[in-house]
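Just scan my protein:

——
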Amino acid sequence: MGGLGHKFDISQKADVSLAFIQSVREEHSTPLIQRLDGIYFNTSQNYKVQNYFIEETYRKADGVVFQSNFNKELTFKFFGPHDNYSIIHNGADIERINNTERFLKYPDKFSEVWCCASSWRPHKRLDDNIRYFFEHASKDTCFVIAGKVQKRINDPRVFYLGEIEQDDLYKLYKTSTHFIHLAWLDHCPNVVVDARACGCKIVCSSAGGTKEIAGLDGIIIEEERWDFKPVELYNPPELDFSRNIKNTWNISYNMKRTAKQYENFFTSTTRKLDS
């Protein structure tokens, strides 16, 4: 939290213990805060075993931070409600983004760049991202895909970058006008937060938590509401791009605000326990 004026001093006793997803320790000498970015529900995997230590940590945590409202609803459905929690969406490093230049220039025949980036697994829907681009972008727009992909299409408007460094992702986002992220049941993807902070219009699915960080100008493709029952995650349903709805979420993406929210929640939790 250096941006808030705090300095880490290893010689000082911690005020809280922060567990990212899970903690295997039996006891903690300070209040335990669990930060959850999702739990397992894929029926093609042993999700109950995968969730075991996560749920154990949830039960003993003095407070829980959820990355999105979707994440909170999902966890409440699987583990039951928690009596002390906060929903804190991911933030973007605005200062670092502002100090990053735009990306390399693309061929002059393209007047606009759209992009996407992810760790490409089936529920991330790369094929649908590409299909949306071809159906909605103008002919003088190119599409740049970051991240390791299993197969590539041969098209003069589509470029592949593979895995690139974070600063290069910022450059790509700042060069692009649209960022497509049609992933199914995603929680609070950092790539969307960063792309929006770089000025991209976000295209995403209504299913999951991505719409919460897409901004009021985001293009939301409506899907059937999920009932929070275990599902085959890597077999997402077909998307109908004509089902376009207005977004009602307008969450700030500044990392300093996010850090302040964490600080406030830590403080309120310790005060509750002291009272």
In short: Helices lie at 47-50, 52-60, 69-79, 94-98, 126-136, 166-175, 190-197, 255-274.
